Amino acid sequence: MEILKQIAEFKSSPELIEKLKEHSVSKKYGAGEIILDENSHVRSIPIVVKGALKVSRTEEDGREILLYYIQAGQSCIMSFLGGIHNETSKVKAEVEDDAEILFLPVDKVGLFIKEHPEFLDYIFRLYHTRFEELLEVVNAIAFKKVDERLLTLLKKKAQLAGQDTIQTTHEQLATELGTARVVVSRLLKQLEENGAVKLGRNKIELL
């Protein structure tokens, strides 16, 4: 749980960290597992201790779009909002890399906010970060070509993995970009011809 001590808002409050450990439940997940699905009730707030989650939204026609990633030390602001207002989830949270997650029951959130202003500061910072990321998604969809969005996504995945080789499929990338697999395959081939990537079986290396 060392990551909790590295969160800026928690550094000045060892008591808050101890309470989080006391009232939360720690669970481990493998890549691809879904910890929160759309339209499901939010029972607890996840704080990522290790690994990463990807948060996406599915449209009525079945298309899915990646909204943002949640990295170690971060949480899902959509879970905060849904849990506090007793609403169902509007997004899906899936494990990107093997993860360890701390789940804080929703009924404890109000108490934490009341007794520890640092926890509220943490929520506000997350909200600000996610708002900026969602603006980037809107900007990318409206103004950027798919090849630019694809390269940005590959770089983000490499950053999360901490290495230049990414374990993924064309289908997965297409789903996260909200486009067709054939489009992604064609663009990846172009990127390979331009010397930007090297393609392998279910893996892509950024050059």
Give an account of the 3D structure.
- The protein is an alpha+beta fold.
- It folds into two domains: 2-141, Jelly Rolls, CATH 2.60.120; 145-206, Arc Repressor Mutant, subunit A.
- The chain has eight helices and eight strands.
- It has helices spanning 2-6, 14-23, 77-84, 106-115, 117-143, 146-161, 170-177, 181-193; strands at 25-29, 34-36, 44-58, 64-71, 92-105, 165-167, 197-200, 203-206.
- Strands 1, 2, 3, 4 and 5 form a five-stranded antiparallel beta sheet that branches.
- β3 and β4 (64-71) form a beta hairpin.
- The longest helix has 27 residues, at 117-143.
- It is elongated.
Overall mean pLDDT stands at: 89
Counted up, domains total 2
CATH topology name of the largest domain: Jelly Rolls
Radius of gyration: 18 Å
Question: What is the beta-strand fraction?
Answer: 25-35%
What is the CATH level 1 assignment of the largest domain? Mainly Beta
Number of DSSP helices?
8
**What would you say the CATH architecture of the largest domain is?**
Sandwich
Q: How would you sum up the major sheet?
A: 5 strands, antiparallel
Global morphology: elongated
